[in-house]
Amino acid sequence: MIKVENLCRSYGDYIAVDKVSFGIKKGEIVGLLGHNGAGKTTIMKMLTGFLEPTSGVIEIDGVQIGSHLQETQGMIGYLPENCPVYPEMTVIDYLDYMAALHGVAEEKRTDLVIAAMAKTEVTAKGDQPISTLSRGYRQRIGVAQAILHEPKILILDEPTNGLDPTQIQHMRTLIKTLSESCTIIISTHILQEVQAICDRAIIINNGRKVVDSQLADLQSDSRLLLKTDAPPEKAKSMLGSFIGVANVQELAKIENEPGYCYRMALASDTDRYQATAELARKVQDEGWNIYGFHPETRDLETVFAETSA
């Protein structure tokens, strides 16, 4: 559905986006992560055709965006971080106006406005001025205007920004429902939102793609933590020679707790369960005491910290 190859954007000597490539399949919900200034917004502006790349290629459903700008923009719905609405307009009038801007034929507008309001659950507020509505409803109206023209791709910039817990849950449910009919990219710095909604994460750091992985793979337990009384001069050599262990790292000792702690990274083709059992037997054969032995838990926050270090 989306194909990006060697995407670059520079401003004079400053490189905002540096040779970023990725592909996104139909129906995926992908989180685009990065610190402020990492290049996320620049990438989104290029994906939506509002900013021309310095170099590189973007294809939307097989169509190159540079030479077919109007066609590709018609496939995309976009919700900016600060949802642009006209507060003096009623919800229905605003959505009808946005449908016209999207190029929706007049005879189809009413049906599409009604459908968008139903999907985002704002039908009951249709005749109210937007200025009288809560932030949560305004965000929903922003999503409604983005899906009016039935786009194949939906790009949401910080969709839960400023919402209360109940509104956040409603937005998550809405996004998952919308993914049944379109591909979704969510740009955010809130890691919990990516973990709650997305199938996959792309992390951008200093304009470069540093991670592109399914969340299940990203958070898989590929490292083991062993706490034992064996000192480093003995343990690191033995553990490092074990088949399936890629490397061994000694961790800082925890005050008032016995023993030494070692992190073992497993090779990608190693069965974690079998390796754990065999390593435990080997440690016992060596006569070492085991104070703790378990997979290292890695959440998205851990991964994000590692890429930002």
Main traits of this protein?
309 residues; alpha/beta; Rossmann fold; Alpha-Beta Plaits; 2 domains; six-stranded mixed sheet; four-stranded antiparallel sheet; 14 strands; elongated
Estimate what percentage of residues fall within beta strands: 25-35%
pLDDT averaged over residues: 88
Give the helix proportion (percent range): 25-40%
CATH topology of the largest domain: Rossmann fold
Q: What's the CATH class of the largest domain, please?
A: Alpha Beta
Fold topology:
Blueprint lengths: L1 E10 L2 E11 L4 E5 L6 H8 L7 E6 L2 E2 L4 H5 L2 E4 L11 H11 L4 H15 L14 H13 L5 E5 L7 H14 L4 E6 L2 H7 L2 E6 L2 E7 H4 L4 E6 L3 H9 L4 E7 L8 E7 L5 H14 L4 E6 L4 H9 L1
Helix pairs in contact: 3-4, 4-5
